[in-house]
Amino acid sequence: MNDVAVLEIGIQAMWVATKVAAPILVMALGIGLFVGLMQSVTQIQEVTLTFVPKFVGIAFVFAVGGNWMLNEIVTFTRVLFESIPSLLG
């Protein structure tokens, strides 16, 4: 196993992590921006007001895209385990 293979596996792992985390982060960012804007307009500064919509939005993302996320992670892991013999020999 050489350094190029290690770097390639690391880049693939970061790419899969980015693809899986992006929908969750975008949803949390969008909801946080919207709630923050509404809090500044209405001058209601309640901490729990930001938590509940983010929680619901992230739960929605998991419900809709959870199967795809899990499939991406399992596929990457399966390919990685299948490539072990070629990496060692």
Automatic annotation (TrEMBL):
It comes from the Bacteria. It is found in: Cell membrane. InterPro entries: Bac_export_3. Keywords: Cell membrane, Cell projection, Cilium, Flagellum, Membrane, Transmembrane, Transmembrane helix. GO terms for cellular component: plasma membrane. The chain crosses the membrane at residues 20-39, 51-70. GO terms for biological process: protein secretion. It is a multi-pass membrane protein. Belongs to the FliQ/MopD/SpaQ family. This is Flagellar biosynthesis protein FliQ.
